[in-house]
Amino acid sequence: MRWPLGDGGDAVARLTSAFAWFLDRLAPTGMVWEVGGGDGAAVWIPPEGGDAWQEAQDAMSRVRELTDDAGRRFDLFWGWVASNISDERGWHLDSIAVEAELRGRGIGAALIEFGLSKASADRTGAFLETGNPANVAYYERFGFRTIAQADAPGGGPHIWFMRRDP
Asked: In Å, how far are 138, 149, 152 from 104, measured between CA atoms?
C-alpha cells in the first residue's frame, strides 16, 4: 500500500485512513475477521463476495485524496494486481495484519487457518498476493505456492501471486 499512496505527508496517517475507509465498507459483510479485540485481523473474500467487494473497491476511490499524484499510481497498481488475479473460484486473502509486538504468537497463523478452513469447506482453493519477500516462505508453510511474480508497472514493487489448491 505504501507505493500506490506515494511519499507525500504522514505515511502512517494515510495508511490508517485508507484501511479505515476500506474496512468500514467490508466489516458489515462478514469478510473481516478479528482476533483478540484487534490484536490481529484478516480480510478473506469468499468466492460469492463479488458484489460487496466491488462496493468496497468503489469506496476506495476516496483513497485518491490521500495520494501524492491524484491516484495515478494507486489506479495503475491495483488495476495491474486485479488483472493478475485468477478468475478461478476461491477464497482471497486480501489483507492480514498483527500488532507488531504480538507477532510470532500464532495470531496470523490462526487467521490464515480460519480462512483456509472456509476454503476447504467450500472445496475451493485460496489465493493471495504479497509484496514482502519474507511472506513468501511464511505462506508456503500453509500450502500456498507462487504461481506468478513480477514487478508492478511504473516502477512499483515486486509482487508474488500465490495459490493454495483445494
From this structure: 11, 26, 29
